[in-house]
Fold each of these.
Amino acid sequence: MFSNEEIEKLIKAGKIGAEARDLGASLVKPGASSREICDEVENYIIKKGADIAFPCNLSINEIAAHYTPGIEDDMKIPSMGIIKIDVGASIDGYLSDTATSVIIGDQFKELAMSVKKALENVINIMKPNISIYDIGKTIEMSIKSQGFRPIKNLTGHTISRYNLHAGESIPNYPDRTMFYKRLRPGTQVAIEPFGTFGKGFVIDGPKAFIYSLTGRKPKNISEDAKQLLEYIEKKYNALPFAARWLIKEFEKSKVEDLLNELTMQKALVDYPILIEAGRGIVAQYEHTFLILNDRVIVTTL
């Protein structure tokens, strides 16, 4: 169960995450730089006294998740589509995770609203000991009733201290294997419905700009790679980080090769950009929930 101090930190992380999310949404305009948006969002989190729980994700149209600007990569906001902003804050390792969709043009409004409604419907039914199956059923029904598809291989997830994905997945459909699994008091969970008019599942894209530590310490790596690994361990703990963050401390021309070396040696895991398999536009909304004995707190409203 959470102590009062832990609840205070989790609520603070949620508040800062929500403010950063809304700031990011306000900056999304056609032609805007994804790098400038993410930099401003991340700097806001730091200015508010928190750490960044994971790199600001700014995923455009058929890109469902895991896009953050790379060392050289800087996507521009298009003149039409859905832009997902997924952010989180950390207070002493107590995390928040929240997302919203910005609709540019009216063409995809119904899709986005179906996903937003799915999350609202989950908020309305959420309670201690709720079945994970019931959450998935609510999400799927909300999205399908409007003629769209939930993305079945993207899920919500439990969260623990310094651990954004703490073991239990929350499917966006009624998975029968989850019928008897429940969200017990003392659980923190992110619920994040994704919807599309595409095939309803995502595939890995060719690039990755987000990484995290595996805990493995390979011996046969270059001295430069060893120095980078030590820096990452000290700076980011077990939380995800962006390749672009490293060029503040390491030579820009070397960082990508060193990350590849550490990934090949399994000291790091990379997170490829996730793309809707049918290239369908994707919408996403997300909140973080604290399950207590007698109530549920949504920390990112």
Amino acid sequence: VNGRRTAVSYRLQTGDVVRIPPLRTAKVEQEVVDGAALKVHLPVVYEDDGLLIVDKPAGIAVHGGSGESFGVIEALRRQRPQARFLELAHRLDRETSGILLLGKKRSVLLALHEMFRAGARGGGERGADKRYQLLVAGRWMDPVRNVRLPLLKYLLPSGERRVRVADEGKAAHTVFRLLARWQGFSLLEAELKTGRTHQIRVHLAHLGYPIAGDEKYGDFALNRSLARDGLKRMFLHASKMRLPHPQDGRELELEAALPVALTRFLESVARREKQDYGGQI
């Protein structure tokens, strides 16, 4: 006070000049996640000078944001600091595993975007053919079923995004094929004709066949039971994709096998329940 150190008992008076010295605080280092050290295994399905295709595991977002500190793209950029260009060509839900394409050149990325748009328009050889494997609760009866139900995005009071079937929504078309059926579950292949958010999940939930382990649109009581039986994720996997190479036009046929956790759960279903459709699992 007034240029001098003052006893704790001193009482301030009118006109006193008080100086507070700078506080010493511990330096807080910003934590930076090193992509090279991330315990995220991203098997490479295919790679060349313009294209990178990985098998994304479930439980990791394709990019950071919306509560996610990092995603596949951030991890790959840190693991590949020499890459001059690396961008996602499309998205997969955080809970979905399987084939994910990235462009290593802008020209390749733009060509991939056009292929996905062409595929959504039914563009034949110009488009990309995307297939998923999934397990639903219930006995699916049709060997092949075309589902055309419009989808509308909306927000929950919490701000979380959801999708529902609504007449005022955008056109959405999924082709489902029955692969195997048991007493309480059916294994399906889904072919996307359009690429709406949560399309497969919402179409199936609306029809009364929720995907096993789906925490947004599924049967929550069933999911708890499935978790006790070993299924601790959503049973939805981007298993196959066919498309012309964006640089030279040659056909690429890509495949990512079912993850071990899903295969083991299928085997447990096959042991417990009688199968009345499809080949041996």
